[in-house]
Design goal:
Radius of gyration: 23 Å
Helix content: 40-55%
CATH topology of the domain at 172-262: D-Maltodextrin-Binding Protein, domain 2
CATH class of the domain at 172-262: Alpha Beta
Largest sheet: 5 strands, mixed
Length: 311
């Protein structure tokens, strides 16, 4: 039994899939499977099971027991290598993997070059961040495909996760330039009644939140079109002179056709960019570093007191 076997086991356990774990470790699926089989032989029991009709692997009881100690061991090994290994002794395949996911626009809400700064400070890692819809990001975090997700949301929708506020964005609407709503300094939900709207649909947390608030007040925006394709969404908004949700960090892009106006509800829904992870997950050292780095961004942005976590 050696550290490489343990690293392979942890990767498969986190991804729940040999193929994805092999891609992360830069090895073949066959080699990874063989390594885990050898570990199972040494342990004396199977570590994974797959239910009929399901592609996701699950840990056996022995696998769960081993995982508890394995993550600590891998973290300790990473720390040992970072202290004692020569800088040029780590090759590409030995770098620490970090996989994250972000909803469209979440990265733009962060300070300029924030991600690039983290990458430059950790040149011993392989960093991948995939942009997707809200549902897509949640699915990647749930499955372990991404260890950390960045979503635009409100705490009421994040109770199944551990989360922390990074940037308080609030809720804004891009309204057609020249219309009556463009003259308002602030919108209330009643201003949206029967207004033409294009949105990303009910799986998007911003749409979901505003839709629920409007329904509770008997207000019905006229939803003309829904799509997870941002470019298509904007095209439809321009063509039909419809409203759509937006944020200050990209409002300038649409200033010729739309005006950004904040939408207020009489209470702070704490709509923001949040970092999320699965409850109870044990991070590798590089994952913990990124999580802490995001928390520092939140504190510098003035949301330190609003740092929210579920236990």
């Amino acid at each position: 039994m050696d550290i490489r076997q343990i690293e392979c086991f942890v990767a498969v356990a986190r991804k729940g899939n040999y193929t994805k774990a092999a891609e992360e470790l830069f090895v073949s699926r066959q080699a990874l499977s063989k390594t885990v089989k050898h570990l199972e032989k040494e342990v004396g029991e199977p570590l994974f099971i797959s239910a009929p009709g399901q592609s996701q692997l699950r840990l056996t009881q022995k696998g769960v027991q081993l995982m508890d100690d394995a993550v600590s061991l891998v973290n300790a090994w990473d720390a040992f290598c970072s202290v004692h290994a020569a800088p040029d002794a780590v090759d590409h395949s030995g770098r620490k993997p970090l996989a994250a996911a972000a909803v469209h626009g979440a990265l733009l809400s962060l300070p300029k070059n924030a991600i690039a700064a983290f990458e430059q400070a950790h040149d011993d890692m392989i960093f991948s961040i995939e942009q997707s819809t809200t549902r897509g990001v949640l699915d990647m975090v749930d499955s372990g495909e991404a260890s950390i997700g960045l979503v635009g949301s409100t705490p009421r929708y994040l109770q199944d996760y551990e989360f922390q506020m990074i940037v308080h964005t609030g809720v804004h609407v891009l309204v057609p330039a020249g219309g009556e709503l463009a003259e308002k300094r602030v919108l209330s939900p009643s201003d949206l009644d029967r207004q033409p709207f294009v949105t990303m649909g009910v799986r998007d947390h911003l749409h979901r939140f505003v839709h629920e608030q409007c329904l509770a007040l008997g207000i019905r925006p006229d939803i003309l079109f829904t799509s997870s394709n941002v470019n298509l969404l904007v095209e439809q908004a321009v063509e039909h002179k419809a409203c759509f949700f937006g944020f200050p960090f990209f409002a300038e892009k649409y200033r010729e056709t739309h005006v950004l106006v904040p939408l207020e509800f009489g209470f702070d829904p704490q709509f923001a960019t949040y970092a999320i992870r699965r409850k109870g997950v044990r991070f590798t050292s590089i994952e913990q570093s990124f999580w802490n780095y995001l928390a520092e961004i939140g504190q510098e942005a003035g949301v330190g007191n609003a740092l929210l976590r579920t236990e």
